[in-house]
Amino acid sequence: MKWKVIAMVLMLITAIMVSGCAQNPQTNESNSNPNSDETIVIGSKLFQESYILAHMLSILLEDNGYNTEVEQGLGGTFVNYEALKQGQIDAYVEYSGTAYSQILKKPSPDTWDPQMIYEETKKGLMQEDNVKIANRLGFENAYAIAVDENWAEEHNITKLSQLEGYASNMVIGTDPEFATREDGLPRIKEVYGFEFKDYKQGAPSIMYQSIKNDEVDAISAYTTDTKNEKFGLRVLEDDKGALPPYDAITLMTSDFASSHPDVMDTLGQLNNTIDQETMRNLNYQYDVENKEAKDIARQFLENRGLIEENN
């Protein structure tokens, strides 16, 4: 009987040890990322490129052990920026020229230099709002004026300055910001000396649809948007350099960056990984091939070897 008791005790001890060993990997895994219970919220603007980039940040962070949430289509520049400052979102992709002219309210220089705008934006955001640039993605998505290709061909229009004799009879469609922001239509009027007959504002998708339906004569297009080709538009050269450079940058507060150095390191992997042609291709997949923004973002990250393939 004594030996039976001893055997049962040994079996119980063994079971406890095995159970402990089985639980250790889970314990180690849950402790490998002290922020694993935290949800990082990514904001986005109101167009396809911003959707794709927001999901790109999200998926990359999730692959590194974080929980994330994407606020797709949260709003325009000021909605996202205010949400960032208030801690309602933790990061979003902005553009250097927009931050320089709209957020920081800096005056337009005589000549736009992309590196100068980036450096001034980086310094100004920290000084004014304690906001940090987490990465510089590598491409520029600039504003541009686009018109119907057939109309441009008929009137031999390739440059913005050549609209001088036509603009007063033209209605331009814009996104919710371009018509009134200082680096938009007011800047074009200042530099080129003409203004359009009227403007109609709407979400970017509505703006593009409006020129396709002949409801407007021109639009404030985006240079990385493949709807320019899809809808048969000619993007006019800004031959007097009225519009600033718009390098894609990811913003977060300095406090968040300081308390999450691993997030900064993770998002730093996206530095200079997307050129303009690549971004146009990603937008093409959304606009023409009707792929989901999240799937486009994941495939890009897999192709670049930044995350493992999702089998």
From TrEMBL:
GO cellular component: ATP-binding cassette (ABC) transporter complex
Pfam families: OpuAC
CDD domains named in the record: PBP2_AfProX_like
A GO molecular-function annotation: transmembrane transporter activity
Domain of life: Archaea
Residues of the ABC-type glycine betaine transport system substrate-binding domain: 39-303
Gene3D superfamilies (alphabetical): Osmoprotection protein (prox), domain 2, Periplasmic binding protein-like II
InterPro entries for the chain: ABC_Gly_betaine_transp_sub-bd (IPR007210), PBP2_ProX-like (IPR041894)
Protein name, UniProt field: Substrate-binding region of ABC-type glycine betaine transport system
Provenance organism: Methanohalobium evestigatum (strain ATCC BAA-1072 / DSM 3721 / NBRC 107634 / OCM 161 / Z-7303)
